[in-house]
Design goal:
By secondary structure, the chain is α/β, with parallel strands linked by helices. Helices cover about 35% and strands about 20% of the residues. The chain has two domains: about 5-75 and about 185-255, Rossmann fold, CATH 3.40.50.1000; about 85-180, HAD superfamily/HAD-like (Rossmann fold, 3-Layer(aba) Sandwich), CATH 3.40.50.1000. The protein has nine helices and 14 strands. The strands form four sheets. A six-stranded parallel beta sheet has the order 5-4-1-12-13-14, with helices on both faces. A four-stranded parallel beta sheet has the order 6-7-8-11. It binds magnesium ion. Pfam families: Hydrolase_6, Hydrolase_like. It is an enzyme of class 3 (hydrolase).
Length: about 260
């Protein structure tokens, strides 16, 4: 019997690997569903809506979860703003998925009114004028919040600058540090734990990336399970002082029950 009452589980590298399936992970998730064990799939990906993620997992992988099982950095962002800036007017510098999912939250997104919070993600068609709006708002006292700080995105034509490069531009101009929502930072973990409704001492953080997933768990003083199906490889761990609570090759090794 596991001593945990809930799990937070990473998506890419843990539940699947890009377009490649991880059968052991699919069996693991289906078992959790069968026995009704509480869990949330937690992802930094801010370019997909929850509906898109659910559709993807249902259609291309044997993972019959629903939207209640998914917690993204976009939801975390909305929860963070509602908690810390209720009723705020928000300027969104980001793409469709980010904008869409912030529209039905309890704050306004009206560029013609004074801005309380600047939200920034990756925006591939960003303009100098939009950057200026963000910079001026932050200089005037708006809080600056970003989904993640990825530097680069791999594409068919090479590495493209990612969300963090736009953050660097705004940070340089304003000299202001953003609040970062995604793993390894706390906001996404606090939000996911709150939705799970279980004390963090009884929740295990499961992921493939030491720098994001495992650090996120450690930053919350949670137990962590590193699964070696993704980014972090065993050799990486030789240089690391603070080891995950558990390390396994694949999720079939984890004795859930
Ligand atoms: Mg991952």
């Amino acid at each position: 019997m596991t001593k945990y009452e809930g799990y937070l589980v990473d998506l890419d590298g843990t539940t699947y690997r890009g377009k490649e399936r991880i059968p052991e992970a699919e069996v693991f998730i289906r078992h959790l569903l069968d026995v009704g064990f509480p869990f949330k799939l937690v992802t930094n990906n801010a370019t997909k809506t929850v509906e898109e993620i659910v559709h993807n997992l249902n259609s291309y992988y044997d993972i019959p979860i629903d939207s209640s099982h998914v917690y993204t950095s976009i939801i975390a962002l909305g929860d963070y703003i509602e908690l810390h800036h209720p009723g705020a007017n928000v300027y969104v510098l980001g793409e469709a998925a980010l904008k869409e999912q912030l529209l039905d939250r309890n704050f306004t997104v009206d560029p013609s009114k004074p801005i309380d919070v600047v939200v920034q993600g990756l925006k591939r068609d960003v303009t100098y004028d939009q950057l200026t709006v963000a910079v001026q708002a932050i200089l005037a006292g708006a809080e600056y919040v970003v989904t993640n700080t990825d530097r680069l995105i791999p594409t068919e034509t090479g590495m493209n600058p990612s969300s963090g490069a736009i953050t660097a531009f705004i940070q340089f101009a304003t000299r202001k540090e953003p609040i970062i929502i995604g793993k390894p930072n706390k906001p996404i973990m606090e939000g996911a734990l709150k939705q799970l409704g279980i004390d963090k001492s009884k929740v295990l953080m499961i992921g493939d990336n030491y720098d994001t997933d495992i650090m996120a768990g450690m930053n919350m003083d949670m137990d962590t399970l590193l699964v070696l199906t993704g980014v972090t490889v065993r050799e990486d761990l030789e240089l690391i002082q603070k080891q995950p609570t558990y390390i396994i090759e694949s999720l079939s090794e984890w004795k859930h029950e």
